Amino acid sequence: MKATQLLHDMGQSIWLDNITRDLLDSGALKRYIDELSVTGLTSNPTIFDHAIKNSSAYDASIRDALARGSSGEDLFFELALADITRAADLFRPVHDSTNGRDGWVSLEVSPLLAYDTATTLREAKDLSARAARSNVFIKIPGTREGLPAIEEAIFAGVPINVTLLFSREQYLAAADAFLRGIERRLDAGLPPVVASVASLFISRWDVAVMDQMPEALRDRLGIAIAQRTYKAYRNLLDSPRCRRIVKAGGRPQRLLWASTGTKDPKASDILYITALAAPDTVNTMPEGTLKALAQHTTIGPPLPADGGDCEQALAEFAKAGIDVDDLAARLQEEGAKSFSKSWNDLMDVIRSKSAVLKGPVTAGR
Fold first, then answer.
1. Cβ-contact 130, 81 below 8 angstroms
2. Which of 125, 139, 341, 353 is catalytic?
3. What is the largest distance, in Å, between two alpha-carbon atoms of the chain?
4. Number of C-beta neighbours around residue 314 at 10 A
5. How far from 334 is each of 96, 329, 331, CA to CA, in Å?
């Protein structure tokens, strides 16, 4: 049996961290759903930047959008929503059969809004309405300014994927924002069924310290942070706040492992997949990692609910001079800057392609 099926049977959802029009047009995404137990999909500005820059599949749509007067950011969201809604429709059977637990597709607000609460909330509501699909998450970064927008979006009934989380503390802050939104709905007599996931980034931890660590600590920091966060997640699921939501008919926010492609050429191609196998979680993985996983037939034991040896491992990193709280803050800030750069690059691609494509169609084009 494929390791992808084993993970699915364990209770972990496998989502693809990629979307391109070629992936949709070729039928590859449908094959991943049918053959590799893929039950959802995530996107981000970097993914769309690469997709549009490296393919002519969007050219006809860009021409049509230009003819309607669209440009820049508006044009991009037209392209992105077309892909996202097609993917959401492919995952709709999974969404329906799991009663909304799975089958989700994610689209991110502009990363330039990471520190702008009001505009983030307004764009999240707008994108959700334009998608007009019950299985589309809007991604909002779990920055200090993003947290109030997350709470308000949940209260407004907008399903949210909280992105750019790097530590237990950042995860708990995001989970609290989700819970406050749901609790406010309960207090207002509204249904508590608004879905959410909280995305913890893994591999960037190990990339950040790779050149500073002895061999014995290589590629262990991201996993230790995940173990610590998973313990907090399991404890939260057992808390009175979560039990109240479940009793009222709602569903707790799920923990999602993001950035799970192996960056270290010396490490296993499925390092973060086997280490983070855990029920009631999601692992969104790059296409290459998904294909590598499908070549395996074992996944090992599930992640221990008590965090295993994470505190011992983190103590070793502290001795090596790593302050995980400071590093978590820096990684979140750097992540926001990285996505903003990708967004600006994406807008440059949109502008340059628009300039080329807005002229009359010539023979051979």
1. yes
2. 139
3. 67
4. 19
5. 37, 9, 5
Phi and psi angles of residue 351, each rounded to the nearest 5 degrees, phi first: -65, -45
Q: What gap in Å lies between CA 219 and CA 221, rounded to an integer? A: 6
Nearest to 149 by CA among 182, 115, 172, 111: 115
Any residues with CB less than 8 A from the CB of 129 and at least 6 apart, and which?
Answer: none
In this predicted model, what pLDDT tens digit does every residue of 175-215 receive, in sequence order? 999 999 999 999 999 999 999 999 999 999 999 999 899 99
Q: How far apart are the first and last CA of the chain?
A: 46
Please list, in sequence order, all residues whose beta carbon lies within 8 angstroms of the beta carbon of residue 222, skipping any fewer than 6 positions away.
Answer: 202, 203, 204, 205, 206, 272
Looking at residue 70, its pLDDT comes to 94
> For residue 342, what are its two tokens?
């990708």
Class of residue 39 by CB neighbours under 10 A (exposed 0-12, middle 13-18, buried 19+): buried
- How many alpha carbons lie under 13 Å from residue 343 in its C-beta half-sphere? 18
Known catalytic residue: 2? no
